[in-house]
Amino acid sequence: MKQAFRRAFTLSLPVMAGYLSLGIAYGILMEDYGYNFIWSGLVSLFVYGGSIQFVALNFLKGGFSLLTIAIMTLLVNSRHIFYGLSLFNAYRPMGKKKPYMIYALSDETFSLLCSYKDQPGLDNNACMFFICLIDHFWWTLGGVLGGLVGSLITFDTTGLDFAMTALFVVIFTEQWLEAKTHIPAIVGILSAIVCLNVFGSDNFLLPTLIVAVCILFLAKTPISVKLREEEGK
Question: What residues does each domain of the chain span?
Answer without folding.
Answer: 2-157, 179-233
